[in-house]
Amino acid sequence: MDAVEQRLADLEVRLTFIDDTVQALAAADAEQAMRIVELERLLHLLRQELQSVRLGPASDPQNETPPHY
């Protein structure tokens, strides 16, 4: 095998490793994107729950227990 063929074979091997790495990174990116979407959904639900707690019956002056109780 001459030098050119050896260089070509080395480049093909490197390209294969690079391709595998790119595919692994793309899969990791897709997984992270799904996790971010789920975390944003959960954050939205938590914000709604917090808002309902803040605006719940305790914040209504008519439902407050008088101080002498």
Annotation keywords:
rod-shaped, 1 helix, mainly alpha, about 70 residues
Fold and architecture overview:
With 69 residues, this protein is an all-alpha fold. It has a domain at 7-52. Helix content is 75%, strand content 0%. It is built from 1 helix and no strands. It has one helix spanning 3-54. The longest helix has 52 residues, at 3-54.
Q: How far apart are the first and last residues' alpha carbons, in Å?
A: 95 Å
- Tally of helical runs: 1
Helix content: over 70%
Q: How large a portion of the residues is in β-strands, by DSSP E?
A: under 5%
Q: Care to count the β-strands?
A: 0
What topology does this entry show?
Layout lengths: L2 H52 L15
Brief sketch in words of this structure:
The protein has 69 residues and is mostly helical. The protein has one helix and no strands. The longest helix has 52 residues, at 3-54.
